[in-house]
Write a structure and sequence with these properties.
Elements lengths: L3 H26 L33 E7 L2 E6 L2 E5 L26 E3 L10 H7 L6 E4 H10 L3 E4 L4 E4 L2 E7 L22 E7 L2 E5 L17 E5 L8 H11 L4 E5 L16 H7 L6 E2 L6 E3 L6
Parallel strand pairs: 3-4, 4-5, 5-6, 10-11, 11-12, 12-13
Antiparallel strand pairs: 1-2, 1-14, 2-3, 7-8, 8-9, 9-10
């Protein structure tokens, strides 16, 4: 990998995994050789996977949303096919399930949208495969520079920029996720807020907001009311946290909330990956609007509108 920041991010991920395994080994060594005494911390995960193939990319008269795992989604809006942050292969930490679709089964995409450069969102192995069938990649100006280096057809956007993909209008929303700056020496560049983003998408059947990874910002509470929020339930300090997620949900009381950033990476002690829909459901107002999809399960937007 030629990008130093991504290399270090992956090294840190691997070190955290190794440390977790080592600690369990030491626990067994010092007086707890009975494996039944070593209890792994609970982590919420999907009960099963809903595999799909080329049929999900056909044109029809509706807008369908599918969760791909982690923060990844496929949106097919009446034939305009967009993937957001797909992580479908070769992640550098253990995952809890196989991706619901193989990159080889994806016939064509109108766009891939990448919120930021972390490798659970900007998956280079996934995007490399998808570059063969994707008309255009869209992201922030920084991530676009990385994709340009890969030779892909990509476009960088500033916060509040708007662009059109097929029949979807997309506006860039702000994010606050420059966690690298909190660790001096971790990265050779200073990360800016505008290096990360979300996407507010207007389709024929309603509006969808992919928030991206972010601390809760005042700007997030002053958007047009979305019909659907791709809802980050991670309790990490560099994400909304549970408190922030509840505040966001209260601000948009009519929005349907499709759970995101949970149940995918096997990391029960690592807050970015160990979100639990049941914790949110127990505290949220109108909990029936919290939608927990299986990976690959279709959710039809135009049938959900009130």
């Amino acid at each position: 990998m030629k990008f130093v920041a991504l290399i270090k991010y992956r090294i840190m991920s691997r070190l955290l995994t190794l440390l977790f395994v080592t600690l369990i080994g030491l626990t067994n060594l010092f007086g707890q050789s009975d494996s039944s005494q070593v209890t792994k911390k609970y982590q919420a995960k999907p009960k099963s996977v809903y595999p799909f193939g080329k049929e999900a990319f056909l044109k029809d008269e509706k807008t369908t949303i599918r969760w791909l795992g982690n923060a990844g989604f496929l949106i097919n809006s009446r034939g305009t096919r967009v993937m957001i942050d797909p992580m479908l292969k070769e992640f550098d930490m253990p995952v809890l399930f196989d991706a619901p679709v193989a990159t080889s089964d994806i016939p064509e995409l109108d766009a891939v949208l990448i919120t930021h450069s972390d490798n659970d969102h900007y998956s280079i192995p996934t995007c490399k495969d998808l570059s063969k069938v994707t008309k255009a990649f869209h992201s922030t100006i920084y991530v676009d520079s990385l994709m340009q280096n890969e030779g892909w057809n990509s476009f960088g956007h500033a916060i509040s920029d708007e662009f059109i993909v097929g029949n979807i209008n997309i506006k860039i929303t702000p994010a606050d996720h420059q966690w690298q700056n909190a660790y001096p020496g971790f990265a050779k560049r200073f990360f800016k807020k505008e290096d990360c983003a979300g996407f507010f998408m207007t389709t024929v059947d309603g509006t969808i907001w992919a928030t991206g990874d972010s601390k809760l910002m005042p700007e997030h509470l002053n958007l047009p009311d979305p019909d659907v929020i791709l809802f980050d339930i991670s309790d990490s300090e560099w994400h909304f946290t549970i408190k922030g997620a509840l505040q966001l949900a209260e601000r948009y009381p009519d929005a349907l909330l499709i759970c995101s950033h949970w149940g995918t990476v096997d990391a029960p002690d690592f807050t970015p990956f160990n979100g639990d829909p049941e914790i949110i459901k127990a505290q949220i107002k109108n909990p029936e609007r919290l939608i927990v999809l299986l990976p690959g399960e279709p959710f039809i937007l135009n049938q959900s509108k009130k």
